[in-house]
Amino acid sequence: MGCQSSVILEQNLVFSICTHDPDTGVLTDADAAPDYRVYEDETATAILTGSMAKLDDSNTTGFYSEQIACTAANGFEADKSYTVYIEATVDSDKGAISFGFTGKQYADYKATGFAVAGDEMALIDDAITSDKYDETTAYPLTTEDSSDTASSALNTSVADATGIYNLALGLIDEYEIEDGDTTSKAYKYCNRYYSQALQKALAKHPWNEAMKDVTIMQETTAPLFRQAYKYAVPSDSIQVRAIGSDLYHWEVKGGYIQTDYARAPDVWTTATAYVAGQYVRSPDEAVTYLCDTSHTSSTWAGDAANWTTQVGDYYVIDVEYIYLLTDTTAMTTSLIDTIAQELAIKIATGIKADGGETKKMLLEEHKVDILPSARSRDSAEGRLKPIYQSKWKRSRS
Asked: How much is the pTM?
């Protein structure tokens, strides 16, 4: 079931379910539209009832959703807990699921710096005019904003890790960390688990902004057996994704990429643009050199200051990898959302003390919504990237 954990009064809330055949577990349409009932706290009388409807029926199976207006007229109040109870019958077998959310006043979210509308979280500027949000910080935008402002706001990143801390806290219905706070329970939990959450989120997908290409020279000592060459994994690597050829087996072992693949660096030529980190062979093809400073070549002797000798003739390998991106201003909202979700999952039990219920909800949301959506948005900016690998390959990268 998909459902946000809180809603601002006078706005809408959307929830959804997928129905399965109870015998096989296969996605199957319900015998009839699932019914829902919404309860306040533990009051036995439902304040809203109705039936859900199929969503995108031609492309989905057993997928139902419903949007309800969480208004005072419908009986919703601030600081109250609500439970959505849903019943569905599939192949004459009845099943049910329930989920909870809380009602919040708009002022509560303005005070904490966040507002939840539908399934989006947005930063709110404290100085909001009657016409629109402040253009430098606002999101979402009104029709009065220019296209340049719209582009800027839609790509707004958090300034530092604390911004992601606060996104994670918002996901578990907790107040944000104040500027300068390093002693609160919320800060200590977020600070303790942030590095783990960051690395876990980065490893889950080849994010465009977290990818690097690098050329690595072979180690002078070969592997003890099996492969012919080994190359040191970059120190900032989260996960090696590919080497220069798909025709050769490779594996990561003990901090080294081991493979039978190798290529000889190009021989230095004049009038060629070289970039720092590139390898060449000397004109006599006897020694490998590393480019220290990007430049356009003139003469071998005259360009000597731009190169460092490797004191031998060596092979190299081209590597694509996910690196440890820590600059939050370079992260897209897709990656930020995923890191915040990972962090929320890690801190939920300790902060909420609810027996793991919040963590369970976040894990399900992460699996069915946050990560797939983020991967889809990220892949739209380049070639499609595989989501799944074999266990054999995952264990070696």
From this structure: 0.55
- pLDDT at res. 79: 84
CATH topology of domain 2-106: Immunoglobulin-like (2.60.40)
Of residues 298, 261, 262, 304, the one with CA closest to residue 282:
304
Give residue limits of the domains in the chain. Answer: 2-106, 157-206+325-394, 210-323
Query: What mean pLDDT is predicted for residues 86-105?
Result: 90
| Contact yes or no for 49/57 (Cβ under 8 A) | no
DSSP-H helix ranges across the chain: 106-112, 147-154, 161-171, 185-203, 333-352, 357-365, 371-379, 391-394
**pLDDT tier at 293 (50, 70, 90 boundaries)?**
very high
What are the residues whose beta carbons fall under 8 Å from the beta carbon of 91, sequence distance 6 or more?
21, 22, 23, 28, 31
CA–CA distance, 49 with 71 (Å, rounded to integer): 14
* pLDDT reported for residue 277: 94
3-class SS of residue 308: strand
Let me know: does 322 contact 239? Beta carbons within 8 Å: yes
Q: 3-class SS at 276?
A: coil
Q: Which residue has the higher pLDDT, 155 or 335?
A: 335
